[in-house]
Amino acid sequence: TGGMGYIGSHTSVALIEAGYQVVVLDNLDNSSEKVLTGIESITGQTPHFAHTDLRDVDAVLEVFNEYPITSVIHTAGLKSVEESVTNPSKYYENNIGSTITLVKAMQTAGVSTLVFSSSATVYSSSSKPPFDENAKTFPTNPYGMSKYIIEQIMADLALADSKWRLGILRYFNPVGAHPSGKIGESPSGVPNNLMPYLMQVAIGKLEKLPIYGDDYETPDGTCIRDYVHVVDLARGHLAALEFLENKNGVHFWNLGTGKGTSVLELVKEVEKVIEKPIPIEMKQRRKGDIPIVFADVAKASSQLSWQAKYSIEKMCADHWKWQKHYSDSRQ
Ligand code: NAD
Ligand code: UFG
Question: Which of 194, 204, 318, 319 has the fewest other C-beta atoms within 10 Å?
């Protein structure tokens, strides 16, 4: 689900390259059918595509009837923290409603393997980084709360029926694009997230980068995050699927690099790639930001044999390639 989106499209490529047959279910709310062309030009195959809203139970059941589906990777969802604060019911209705429809359809179809896109945003700001999977959870916005509630639903499903094989992936900060530059992130409107904003300043679409706070207790005063290459993230889904072949129950994994990068450090990395300075403007702190977030990735490493391979330089270079050559033509 959500396979036309940023993370879903890279995961589709990884699945096809590993020999899986992929059926993408997406309502194109935040993506375009052109993504299929990108996937096709990378893999030589076009995934089956169902232009379906996940909240439409009959339509979802039709997809399960049409294809011999064995496992589901559920990346569909709305993801703007800001929008979720102004329109919480939209987030609860779409993210939780669609997951419940999906689970019902899976039960009817007898499919019990599900990998879900959760987020580091479920962790409490009172936990000390690095966050491991047992760190205290306390989402502070409706988007994060929708992820947290879905995690709880999945835990309850596993308690109620031992058939379920459920993997919860808590992504840290996904950035980058496929090295071919043929698929990537296409945010609509002015981006909220740092990397897409930086890229639009780099290409001249936006004038300067606002930096939200340089007075945090970090070495350069700006916030620190754990950026992870989307292609590494995509491989993490395959590793989770393979793990679930032999294990039932519910399992949680952080997907990050375990390394922190500050806002100013990321700006410098992008400047190296584009070989010119990025205009910046210091602003007040952004409400809700946590100073330092990075993952403890030991569990994914030991249980899934998964580790992020790509450096911050590679993340910036691949994101830039997508931004420069393709991002406008694929929206
Ligand atoms: P995205 O918006 O690019 O992709 C999500 C896809 O889901 C889109 O193609 C959209 O059209 C589709 N979709 C949304 N609601 C749907 C519905 N009701 N029915 C069918 N399709 C629907 O987002 P992304 O960055 O690829 O994120 C994928 C998942 O990962 C999301 O659940 C998101 O919350 C989660 N996540 C993302 C990040 C991030 O920074 N990108 C971080 C942590 C977690
Ligand atoms: N930032 C700026 N200027 C900008 C945008 C961001 O200075 O124009 C700063 C933020 O203040 C923050 C850092 O860059 O300090 C990272 O911000 P992002 O918005 O890129 O990422 P967040 O860590 O706030 O959150 C993102 C997603 C969430 C997801 C989380 C996972 O927005 O949905 O990563 O950890 F859950």
Answer: 204
Distances (CA, A) of 126 to 106, 133, 140, 295: 37, 14, 11, 15
Instruction: List, chain by chain if needed, residues with CB within 6 Å of any ligand 2 atom.
Output: 79, 81, 119-121, 172-173, 192-194, 197, 209-212, 223, 225, 263, 286, 289, 293
Write out pLDDT tens, residues 121-142. Answer: 999 989 899 999 999 999 999 9
Max Cα distance, the chain (Å)? 57
State the sign of the Cα–Cα–Cα–Cα dihedral 61, 29, 34, 71: negative
Locus of tokens 């945010």: 187
Q: Is 294 in the pocket of ligand 1 (CB under 6 A)?
A: no
Q: Which residues does 68 contact at the CB level (< 8 Å), separation at least 6?
A: none
pLDDT of 331 strictly over 50: no
Give SS3 for 151.
helix
Taking residue 41's Cβ as centre, other Cβ atoms within 10 Å add up to 12
d(CA 5, ligand 1 centre) in Å = 6
Identify the CA nearest to 52 among candidates 2, 9, 93.
2
Pairs from 150-153 (Cβ < 8 Å, separation ≥ 24):
150/95, 150/96, 150/99, 150/116, 150/118, 151/116, 151/118, 151/122, 151/252, 153/96, 153/99, 153/100, 153/103
Please give the structure tokens belonging to residue 185: 């992130």
Question: Taking 70 as the threshold, does the pLDDT of residue 170 lie above it?
Answer: yes
Question: Residue 143 catalytic?
Answer: yes
Cα–Cα nearest to 169, from 136, 107, 122: 122
- Let me know: does 54 contact 60? Beta carbons within 8 Å: yes
DSSP 8-state code for residue 189: S
The whole-angstrom separation of Cα 241 and Cα 230 is 17
Structure pTM? 0.98
**Residue 1 CB partners (closer than 8 Å, separation 6+):** 8, 25, 26, 54, 72, 73, 74, 75, 76, 98, 102
Q: What is the pLDDT of residues 149-160, one digit of tens each?
A: 999 999 999 999
